[in-house]
Amino acid sequence: MKKFSSEFAYNYKNYSFGYGNYCLYEKGDILSEIYSSGYLPYSGSPEVKNIFYMARSARVPLTRFALTSENRRVAKKFDGKFDRISKPVNNFDIDDKDFLSFCVDYFAKRHGSKVMPLNRLMAILRSGFISHIVSYIEKGMPVAYVFECSDRHMAHFWFSFYYLKYIHQSLGMWLMLDSVRFAKERGADYFYVGTVYGEKALYKTAFGFLEYWDGSSWVMDIKKLKALSRSEKERTIDLIDSWKKDWKIF
Question: What is this structure's pTM?
Answer without folding.
Answer: 0.96
